């Protein structure tokens, strides 16, 4: 379906579409994880990042950057997950200000249980509605935006800049 929009409205419509599609797909995937009796989606994201990390885990600050949540929210999530035995917090031996989130064996098991539900949800609630060409365009375009923010290209102009 092609939307008849003026060129200056395309950016706003693209942004709105990203938000609507993301919200709908995430809610559907979250519901499937819940029905399957696995960890919630936010916990899955934390487990995914910890699973992908090199030993011993991730510093809390780095984990917050990777899961796109506030540091406060990540800290609360990790505390909840630690109470369930899925992760543990460890203070860095060299710098007591640094706290690491470390995946436990129970966390690995919970992650493995959730993976097929999560990947199936991505296919069912997102990818199945797009052609391969559309998937490529979306991936390329959104990665450009993400890269621009990682490199600082989208930092707001400073008022004292010449």
From TrEMBL:
Gene3D superfamilies: Winged helix-like DNA-binding domain superfamily/Winged helix DNA-binding domain. PANTHER family: TRANSCRIPTIONAL REGULATOR, MARR FAMILY (PTHR33164), TRANSCRIPTIONAL REGULATORY PROTEIN (PTHR33164:SF104). It comes from the Bacteria. This is MarR family transcriptional regulator. GO terms for molecular function: DNA-binding transcription factor activity. GO terms for biological process: response to stress. Residues 1-147 form the HTH marR-type domain.
